[in-house]
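Most newcomers find our protein records easier to grasp once they have seen one. Read left to right, the backbone structure tokens trace the chain's path through space. Nothing more is needed to start thinking about how sequence determines fold. An example says more than a description, so a record of this kind follows:
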Amino acid sequence: MKIDIPEFNLETEPIFDIKDIMKILPHKPPFLLVDKIIYLSDNQAIGIKNVTINEFFFTGHFPKNPVMPGVLQIEAIAQVGGILVLSKFKNPIGYSAYFIKIDKVRFKRKVIPGDIIIFQVHLLEKIKRGIVHIQGNGYVNNKLAVVAEVVAKIFKNNK
């Protein structure tokens, strides 16, 4: 299986910076796990997460050998997918997406402080009745770190 590792140029202006992302996603720090979006099309998004030792989860996971929890890597994939889908809405903050299924998850290597994770997410199917099915890959140092398929349901937020 050939892996299509996204190209990443640190000098590229982001499509969405952290302020833009906070206008799209309902997540806020410390649970916002995407720092910027560098590519966005109708069916694909590429997002960046700078992993630092200051992350809340490193306090307990694991203090002497810090590793980013896999469940948060999957959450980051879902957040990039959320940006892919919700950025198309006129009022994206009026909607939320919730997991309904996570499948085909594989962790290929540890993600540690100092890493930059590049998340490449694409739609696997057209969105139907608010159901979103995405495939996400996370890369560190041009090597695959995490793979997951995520299915989510989009809901309009109550006022």
